[in-house]
């Protein structure tokens, strides 16, 4: 009889543990919602988990090839823009022609910019506090993205002009007037490789350019970008992906 009571107590204890602490099923559910489970959520996102040219990657000097060539030709100009809280990030979208960047004789029109915190790309294993993505599209529908990395320090001049618009922006377009992309600091030393979008549908064939020089961003600016995002994506960066032997090219126009 004593043995039966012990078994009964053990059964009920196990029942209540499973009832109130369903850790296994919860963990599986959370994984499915995160980047590791993107391919399960939507069949059109399958490449997120099966692709061989996914981004971001670690830009390590061990796999870099030096290229003696002009990295790009920039021709940006001021244009009317809006700021949008997309839930998972803050985006600045240009409503008229804000210019282009020309890479390998192909023109890519500047469409929008958005931020990820912490940075998505790493350099020799180092992850930074913020990354700006400038998204461009060619007439043939090809994508080129320029990535700029930031660490905590002095305020960023470009973000300083957008700070009032970022604070309190809702999930709808908010006009912020003329925005000049030329005010973003660019440098001639860059990494370049073929990758993908870093969010679903993770489309591959994206020409990535990541500047090697790390700029600064203030804590106030970084906090504003994080706090305005309100759907649980305050840390909105995709993990590093397998490079699968991809080449990384290094351009130094001053060489």
Walk me through the structure.
- The structure is a single chain.
- It contains six helices and 16 strands.
- It is of the alpha+beta class and 255 residues long.
- It folds into two domains: 33 residues; 211 residues, Carbonic Anhydrase II, CATH 3.10.200.
- Strands 2, 3, 4, 5, 6, 7, 10, 11, 12, 13, 14, 15 and 16 form a 13-stranded mixed sheet that branches. Strands 1-8-9 form a three-stranded mixed sheet, with no helix packed on it.
- Helix 5 packs parallel to helix 6.
- The longest helix is centred in the first third of the chain and has 19 residues.
- About 11% of the residues have low confidence.
Average pLDDT metric = 85
> What level of helicity do the residues show?
10-25%
Order of helices and strands: HHHHEEEEEEEEEEEHEEEEHE
Provide the β-strand percentage band: 35-45%
The CATH class of the largest domain, by name, is Alpha Beta
Report the radius of gyration as a whole number of Å: 22 Å
User: Outline, from the CA principal axes?
Assistant: globular
For the biggest sheet, the summary is: 13 strands, mixed
The name CATH uses for the topology of the largest domain is: Carbonic Anhydrase II
* Secondary structure tally, helices: 6
Q: What is the architecture of the largest domain at the second tier of CATH?
A: Roll
CATH homologous superfamily grouping of the largest domain: Alpha carbonic anhydrase
User: How many E-type strands?
Assistant: 16
Q: In terms of per-residue confidence, which ranges show pLDDT below 50 for 5 or more consecutive residues?
A: 6-32
Q: Give the distance, in angstroms, between the N- and C-terminal Cα atoms.
A: 87 Å
Determine the structural class based on helices, strands and strand pairing: alpha+beta
The total domain count is: 2
Keywords: Glycoprotein, Lyase, Metal-binding, Plastid, Signal, Zinc
Signal peptide: 1-27
GO molecular function, one term: zinc ion binding
Function: Reversible hydration of carbon dioxide.
């Amino acid at each position: 009889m004593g043995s039966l009571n012990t078994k009964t107590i053990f059964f009920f204890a196990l029942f209540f543990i499973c009832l109130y602490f369903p850790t296994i099923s919860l963990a599986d559910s959370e994984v499915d919602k995160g980047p590791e489970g993107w391919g399960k959520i939507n069949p059109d996102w399958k490449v997120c988990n099966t692709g061989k040219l996914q981004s971001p990657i670690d830009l390590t000097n061990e796999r870099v090839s030096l290229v003696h060539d002009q990295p790009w030709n920039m021709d940006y100009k001021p244009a009317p823009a809006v700021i949008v809280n997309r839930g998972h990030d803050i985006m600045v979208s240009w409503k008229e022609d804000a210019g282009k960047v020309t890479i390998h004789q192909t023109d890519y029109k500047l469409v929008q910019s958005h931020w990820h915190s912490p940075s998505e790309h790493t350099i020799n294993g180092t992850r930074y506090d913020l990354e700006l993505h400038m998204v461009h599209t060619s007439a043939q529908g090809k994508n080129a993205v320029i990535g700029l990395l930031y660490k905590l320090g002095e305020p960023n001049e470009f973000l300083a002009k957008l700070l009032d618009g970022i604070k309190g922006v809702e999930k709808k377009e908010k006009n912020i007037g003329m925005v000049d992309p030329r005010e973003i600091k660019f440098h001639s030393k860059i990494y370049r490789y073929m990758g993908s979008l870093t969010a679903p549908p993770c489309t591959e064939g994206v020409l990535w350019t990541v500047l090697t020089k790390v700029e600064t961003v203030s804590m106030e600016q970084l906090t504003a970008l994080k706090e305005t995002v309100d759907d649980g994506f305050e840390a909105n960066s995709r993990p590093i992906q397998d490079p699968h032997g991809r080449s990384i090219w290094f351009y130094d126009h001053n060489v």
